[in-house]
Design brief:
Number of domains: 3
CATH superfamily of the largest domain: FAD/NAD(P)-binding domain
Strand content: 15-25%
Bound molecules: flavin-adenine dinucleotide, iron/sulfur cluster
Domain FAD/NAD(P)-binding: 146-452
Domain Dihydroprymidine dehydrogenase: 19-131
Protein name: Glutamate synthase (NADPH), homotetrameric
GO molecular function: iron-sulfur cluster binding; oxidoreductase activity
Radius of gyration: 23 Å
CATH class of the largest domain: Alpha Beta
Organism: Enterococcus rivorum
CATH topology of the largest domain: FAD/NAD(P)-binding domain
Length: 475
């Protein structure tokens, strides 16, 4: 242990004063040499806890050992066995709460865990550069069956990739004009470049997966048609419907949901207007409501669009902040201001229907609520005003309803999400499986992928079983 470096191998990043006015990626990634230096820190634990804490059970010591030996090809092979989207996970997974949280090296006094996420990113980026995915193995043997996947976010892409590898004919239906779900329309370029998302999607298409965009299941194609044409289907339509505070002034010009704000920027390229034809407001004072990754992304995007003052208003304190800590640190470096223990109570009208400010109230933390976190309670007579021409509400999303509203046979839970077994993806209807945010509520990329992985196994069992069962007819 004494010879191991206590801290993670430093990684190059764009300087805060430069990156806060461009949309290019903040973290520049390890070189192979830096990765090898970091890989030496891994203890190669038996019963490695990092594996058990990874929702897709990646052989972490295995791929790190290959990096240490300078064998990137082998590292990529190992990673590819477990994840269809490693370059994405290496960038956006909350490793600090999963594999790195339980890393044995990080448990030792004054030692940081191995930089597992950054090593995963290194290997995945190396593979995207150096491997020819167009030569992915596609079997010539007849396909076992036809599967429809509805939604092309990380959950849908994972199930599609795994089923294609099991020799199924898979079609992914996506409502938008680009595949990727939140990876494409939600997470900004400076955290997850779209060229990386595109390349990983291409590697899934190379397995034989067909992706049909502009296909809204429930509108352009019905669920009856899907059930008729396919042997089984997997619903992964996500949780993209924005929630609103519902306070006075919500309809003023300048009040956005984070979904609209980020979709305009990411999917519609509004930051390149007029080259792309979707504009976005040029703001001076921006207030973002919320404390998750979505709030960080909205605030940091607003800064990059040229806003002078960008603040995040969060009703709890830093200790409870749900966003990734790395994103919080990056936001502070980029001059995002924080109002802790604060909640908006009204959006103020400048007299012409435009937003002029946010009336807020200070909060204190009371007894724990159902989530186990201490409930924020307003402090009487503590109201104050923040000047603002733009407000972005990032207070969570609900289930996507377009498909569900046309498919009443499918059982939902009391929050409007699909009732599906988390270990199998089985729903109330035989042959219809579901997973990702539409089952769990807004969660993480890797959990959505994990749901796709278990469902692929279960769909395979279901189809094989159905095909073996002799059809009985009444004579
Ligand atoms: P989604 O990614 O939502 O994909 C669902 C897809 O289904 C969409 O493309 C949608 O258009 C499509 N669809 C919906 N209805 C239909 C229909 N009727 N027919 C056809 N297609 C349909 N997680 C992390 O782990 N790390 C992060 O840093 C992180 N940052 C985030 C930042 C933002 C701004 C947001 C919004 C989320 C973030 N998340 C993050 C959460 C993560 O992205 C989600 O948990 C994950 O994308 C869920 O995957 P999914 O496949 O279930 O759904
Ligand atoms: Fe390496 Fe940490 Fe995993 Fe042990 S727990 S194998 S040190 S990454």
């Amino acid at each position: 242990m004494a010879r191991k470096s206590r801290t993670k191998t430093p990684i190059a990043e764009q300087a805060p004063n430069i990156r806060k006015s461009n949309f290019e990626e903040v973290c520049l990634g390890y070189t192979v040499e830096e990765g090898m230096e970091e890989a030496v820190r891994c203890l190669q634990c038996k019963n490695a806890p990092c594996i058990a804490n990874c929702p897709v059970m990646i052989d972490i010591p295995g791929f790190i050992l290959a990096i240490k030996d300078g064998n990137m090809e082998e590292a990529a092979e190992i990673l590819g066995k477990y994840s269809n989207l490693p370059a994405i996970c290496g960038r956006v997974c909350p490793q600090e709460k999963q594999c790195e949280e339980v890393c044995k090296l990080g448990m030792a006094k004054n030692f940081e865990p191995v930089a597992i996420g950054k090593l995963e990113r290194l290997v995945a980026d190396w593979a995207l550069e150096n491997k020819d995915f167009s030569k992915a193995i596609q079997s010539d043997t007849p396909k076992i069956g036809k599967i429809a996947v509805i939604g092309s976010g990380p959950s849908g892409l994972t199930v599609a990739g795994d089923l294609a590898k099991l020799n199924y004919e898979v079609t992914v239906f996506e409502a938008l004009h680009e595949p990727g779900g939140v990876l494409t329309y939600g997470i900004p370029e400076f955290r997850l470049p779209k060229r990386i998302v595109k390349k990983e999607i291409e590697s899934i298409e190379a397995l034989g997966v067909k992706i049909e965009t502009n296909a809204i299941i429930g509108k352009t194609i019905t669920m009856d048609e899907i059930i008729e044409e396919f042997d089984a289907c997997y619903i992964a339509v996500g949780a993209g419907t924005p929630n609103f505070m519902g306070i006075t002034g919500t309809s003023l010009n300048g009040v956005y949901s984070s979904s609209e704000y980020l979709t305009r920027i990411n999917l519609m390229h509004s930051y390149e207007f007029p080259k792309y034809d979707t504009p976005i407001k040029q703001s001076k004072n921006v207030v973002v409501i919320g404390g998750g990754n979505v709030a960080m992304d909205a605030a940091r995007s607003a800064k990059r669009l040229g806003a002078e003052n960008v603040s995040i208003v969060y009703r709890r304190s830093l200790e409870e902040l749900p966003a990734r800590i790395e994103e919080y640190h990056h936001s502070v470096e980029e001059d995002i201001q924080y109002y802790w223990l604060t909640n908006p109570v009204e959006y103020l009208d400048d007299g012409t229907g435009n937003l002029s400010g946010v009336k807020c109230i200070q909060m204190e933390l009371g007894e724990p609520d159902d989530s186990g976190r201490r409930r924020p309670v307003p402090i009487e007579n503590s109201e104050f005003i923040i000047e603002a021409d733009t407000v972005i509400e990032a207070i969570g999303q609900g289930s996507n309803k377009v498909l569900l509203s046309t498919f009443p046979e499918l059982k939902l839970n009391k929050w409007g999400y699909i009732e599906a077994d988390p270990k199998t993806g089985i729903t109330s209807i035989p042959g219809v499986f579901a997973g990702g945010d539409i089952v769990t509520g807004a969660a993480t990329v890797i959990l959505a992928m994990g749901a796709g992985k278990v469902a692929a196994v279960e769909i395979d069992k279901y189809v094989k079983n159905e095909k073996q069962t002799p059809v009985t007819t009444n004579v």
